[in-house]
Specification:
Length: 354
């Protein structure tokens, strides 16, 4: 039976609501509304949790209303309310969970708490109908992990970053070079004019078996490179900037491609998918696509970055599987998808989500 699900997302700096209709494997996105807080945090060089939480609380009812109106339905037409219950910035997650509880209680509808990472991980199934199990590389500003997606609520973490996420590294490199935020698109643009071979950068953890990753040493190497050039020449030329960006981007793509090869060798899968904001990078996409003969899926960008359609979809699958949460649903700052996997050393230090 087709279900209509309202999804709510507020775990970082996007306030989002979406309406989905269908059954697992065959759904239509009726609306997908995202209100970004980028401008609110721009002056601080990163997301300020307290500002984020307040902005979510102020905006949630507006995005829900817009999602319902755009979908051409009434609020009481929804069959269930799915909400991100973690991992994420706790004030934001709480805002979303409280809003969802209020709606569920007021409308008399079931509530389903969703793991934000499950939303990302299930997106390639939403967009391309991938069969389980498939390999997912999640690369964003807050996440970096390889997941074998085995079912709607079954995931095995094969590896991930031991420090920063790649998006954080792109943002830091942009900051070091005086390029605008968010750093990923600025670095990619500058790299178009650059020579990736001019500077030699470290390729972290390639010498270690498995598919764990590290980006913090690479960031430091770029800092040293910049300082060296400034000390030598009194500043950076446009060409220096372009060459650093090209070298950094090629290194990230090379390391992620090599680790993807290893993750693919860790068990049979039907496809290789990538998700998260960094998946927008063309050099990275090309490098990843070349790794395997299996189908390669990179969902459209609006569904790769944080959104509520992915939360509604993960909620729909959980609800179809018989899971419903009560009013005791809690907001969780940390919530690993694979509870059997050992926690990553240092992950979450900078507010990363898992
Ligand atoms: O998934 P996302 O929108 O938010 C979360 O972190 O959850 O990812 C944002 C990150 C930022 O760090 C941004 O710099 C990076 O994705 N990004 C890119 C590109 N576009 C966005 N990184 C590399 N190349 C891009 N074209
Ligand atoms: Zn995310």
């Amino acid at each position: 039976m087709a279900l209509t699900i309202l999804g709510i997302e507020s775990s970082c700096d996007d306030t989002a609501a979406a309406i989905l209709r269908g059954t697992g494997g065959d759904v239509a996105i009726l609306s997908n509304v995202v209100s970004s807080q980028t401008d609110l945090h721009a002056a601080f060089g990163g997301v300020v949790p307290e500002i984020a939480a307040r902005a979510h609380a102020e905006t949630l009812d507006l995005v829900v209303e817009e999602a319902v109106t755009t979908a051409g339905i009434a609020l009481h037409d929804v069959d269930a309310i799915a909400v991100t219950a973690g991992p994420g910035l706790i004030g934001g997650v709480l805002s979303g969970v409280m809003a969802a509880k209020g709606l569920a209680l007021g409308l008399g509808k079931p509530l389903v708490g969703v793991n934000h990472l499950a939303g990302h991980a299930l997106t390639p199934q939403l967009t391309d109908g991938l069969a389980f199990p498939y390999l997912l590389l999640l690369v964003s500003g807050g996440h970096c992990q390889f997941l074998r997606v085995e079912g709607p609520e079954s995931f095995t973490r094969l590896g991930g970053t031991i420090d920063d996420a790649p998006g954080e590294a792109f943002d830091k490199v942009a900051r070091l070079l005086g390029l605008p935020q968010p750093g990923g698109p600025s670095v990619e643009k500058a790299a178009l004019e650059g020579d990736a071979k001019r500077f030699k950068l470290p390729r972290p953890l390639l010498d270690r078996p498995g598919c764990d990753l590290s980006f913090s040493g690479l960031k430091t190497a770029v800092l040293r490179l910049r300082d060296g050039l400034v000390a030598e020449n009194g500043g950076l030329t446009e060409q220096d900037r372009a060459d650093i960006c090209a070298g950094f981007q090629a290194t990230v793509a090379h390391v992620l491609a090599e680790k993807s090869r290893r993750a693919l060798a860790m068990g049979e899968v039907t496809a290789f998918a990538v998700a998260g904001g960094v998946a927008a990078n063309q050099t990275l996409r090309a490098a990843l696509e070349a790794v395997t003969d299996l189908p390669f899926v990179a969902p459209p960008l609006a569904l790769c970055t944080d959104n509520a359609a992915m939360i509604a979809y993960a909620g729909l699958l959980a609800f179809e599987g018989g899971r419903v949460d009560g009013m005791d649903l809690s907001a969780r700052p940390r919530w690993p998808l694979d509870t059997d996997a050992a926690p990553m050393i240092g992950s979450g230090k900078k507010g990363a989500k898992a």
